[in-house]
């Protein structure tokens, strides 16, 4: 079977709060929205200079897709100085890391450590291809490659139906489950009738995040709120789109239906509770 090695790569500069205050809708979306992640037999990447965070997606259809090394990384191979987190949001698939095959079902996660030289992505069925959602951050140490299933996640239930934010948080690639350098990833599932995520909103100067929204029903959408607590902006999100959240920005959303989102974080620490909450009545 032939291996496909196409990739698309985009870099985006970091933006300050003062810049964002003056952005119109189109500029805001071009700066922070990642509107397309999955194209058949291609790996798509967006690099933000907030913590040099890479957000990507790969959907193998015709055959295995290799993890190529973008020229701008100036590396011999992709994970020479990086770590990688993967969550499958499509059909069943496999990830082959340095010859070791790992089966990944829907909503299962895989961590691949620094120093892994070869990574390939495979779908079990081309008619129901896997969709591997990818996050990557710079790494200073090597930790073992490890799969985390739904059953192995650290699960927390938060919110209530009265405040329309009853949700289940699945901590997948976090330091309470497995060791990483700085990457953390998890998945939050909203219950039927709930639409708000991450409310009360918060910031954390020591970390940035990327949100990936999926399981949004046809004809529905999510309004993602960002910006400083007293200077907020919004971006309307469609299914399987991601948004970059700077360290100085809130990151919250409300949908016209319930939905699921994946959060990925990087920065100075691995403390999940390191948040500066913004009282709801003080948001502007």
From TrEMBL:
Write the record's keywords in alphabetical order, separated by commas: Isomerase, Metal-binding, Zinc
Major enzyme class: isomerase
Q: Name one GO molecular function term.
A: isomerase activity
Q: Which positions in this protein are listed as binding Zn(2+)?
A: 202, 204, 209, 251
Name the pathway it acts in. Answer: Glycan metabolism; pectin degradation; 2-dehydro-3-deoxy-D-gluconate from pectin: step 4/5
Q: What EC number(s) are associated with this protein in UniProt?
A: 5.3.1.17
Indicate whether Zinc appears among the record's keywords: yes
> What InterPro entries does this protein map onto?
KduI (IPR007045), KduI/IolB_isomerase (IPR021120), KduI_N (IPR027449), RmlC-like_jellyroll (IPR014710), RmlC_Cupin_sf (IPR011051)
Cofactor entry: Zn(2+)
Its UniProt entry gives the catalysed reaction(s) as:
5-dehydro-4-deoxy-D-glucuronate = 3-deoxy-D-glycero-2,5-hexodiulosonate
Q: How is the cofactor bound?
A: Binds 1 zinc ion per subunit.
Task: Give yes or no: UniProt keyword Metal-binding.
Answer: yes
Query: What functional role does this protein have?
Result: Catalyzes the isomerization of 5-dehydro-4-deoxy-D-glucuronate to 3-deoxy-D-glycero-2,5-hexodiulosonate.
Concerning its family, UniProt says: Belongs to the KduI family.
Q: What is this protein called?
A: 4-deoxy-L-threo-5-hexosulose-uronate ketol-isomerase
User: What lineage does UniProt assign to this protein's organism?
Assistant: Bacteria, Pseudomonadati, Bacteroidota, Cytophagia, Cytophagales
